[in-house]
């Protein structure tokens, strides 16, 4: 029972890495780039006994002569090829089990993903509380944009110059 769940999680890992970075991928076949990523993310590549070159050589060995991808069965063969090299002190079967445990249940890791950082000039330019003039009119008090109403040129037909402080006070003065 434990072995079947391990194989299911191994196949699940294969599928997750197979579709990584490719919107059209079905999860049935894995390309060389994703195979190398799987080996790197799951710590199959240790830099001493297995390097990225070894991973590429094994990929070329297990795939078909004209093929560019490997299926799940070829994937298992590739792990079998790498297992004795990665775990030299164990028997072939134990090494294969150990390498399967490294891969099983893992997902692609997003390392080096760039996050936008507002610092210096960018921070000053995007702070709406510091806007003046007509640009200030495009945002409400909270700094949220008003949309089209913030860009429209609304005509003031009161007869006063825009931003005149005493607008609307003439009638009060004349009636006195």
TrEMBL record:
Could you tell me which residues belong to the region Disordered?
132-153
Q: Name one GO molecular function term.
A: tubulin binding
Protein name in the entry: Tubulin polymerization-promoting protein family member 3
- Record keywords, A-Z: Cytoplasm, Cytoskeleton, Microtubule
Task: Give the GO biological process terms.
Answer: microtubule bundle formation; microtubule polymerization; positive regulation of protein polymerization
Note whether Nuclease occurs among the keywords.
Answer: no
Biased segments, Basic and acidic residues type: 134-153
Q: Which InterPro entries match?
A: EF-hand-dom_pair, TPP/p25
Name its cellular compartments.
Cytoplasm, Cytoskeleton
Q: Which organism is it from?
A: Bucco capensis (collared puffbird)
Query: Into which family does the record put it?
Result: Belongs to the TPPP family.
- What is the residue range of the signal peptide feature? none
Please give the GO cellular component terms listed in this UniProt entry.
Answer: microtubule
One protein family per Pfam: p25-alpha
